[in-house]
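By convention, each integer encodes one residue's backbone shape. The lines below illustrate.
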Amino acid sequence: MISMNDSPSIQHPSVTLGLVQTSCSPSFEENLSKTTRLIDQAARDGAQIICTQELFCSQYFCQSEDYDNFKLAEPIPGPTSEAMRKLAAKRKVVIIASLFEKRAAGVYHNTAAIIDADGSMLGIYRKMHIPDDPLYYEKFYFTPGDLGYRAWQTRYGKIGVCVCWDQWYPEAARLTAMQGAGILFYPTAIGWHPAEKAAHGANQHGSWETIQRSHAIANGCYVAAINRVGLEKPDGGEGIEFWGQSFVAGTSGQILAKAFPDREETLLVPVDFAQVDTTRTHWPFLRDRRIDSYGDLTRRLID
């Protein structure tokens, strides 16, 4: 059973984030071992809340529609989440682990497990927005999330988690921040189609970074985006060149730290939860929201 019990409501004045950016090989075991080792090292170096990239145990298999890839999925609780729980308890760190969840026969999710610093499972977040684009055929694999947007009180502060394609939607960030999250984490797998990079690469990456920095500004919170690196061709095609550049944005949208675009790196970034209160007080966007005027947001379009 997944415990939904909150940790004691302790809001540490400051906390160090760990963002684990890696390349991935075809070996599930190798990827898991490497990420486990890097999380352990980040904890020993002072990180207190550590987040993996999206689907860190495998290469990004959604580049093709292949039924064999469902074999990569596992239940939660399951072997990988249990290994992460033990590591969290050992190092007294919060871990956000992005997993391919097998919920039931024929029902699979792109899921983040949120594990507190005592090893308890605070809960899971199931990716809500599922893309279907060339080389990103996620609708073939993932059922849309049905748990909504949530925030969790961890030992070190209140956080929210969304996953990759969710990062383009201001509604997802807002609904998570409204529950008190001071940091929004986005485990991610995004990159360039090699043939398009020269013409569109700069704009694509710029848009990705800008939209997430805007969530930090609009909600007066920190944003942490964790991406992978490397050229992956799991189906032998042209592949995707993942652009890395994991980053943490401050409460005014400023870049506090950014990883390299072409190498593995673990970012350690201290953040001050008190700054969330200060920013939201001086830029009171949450106060001035006209909630009486937003009803049409529940419609697809306004004719």
Observations:
- DSSP finds five helices and 17 strands in the chain.
- The longest helix spans residues 197-219.
- Residues 14-287 form a domain with the Nitrilase/N-carbamoyl-D-aminoacid amidohydrolase fold (CATH 3.60.110.10).
- The helical segments are 28-44, 79-91, 170-177, 197-219, 274-282.
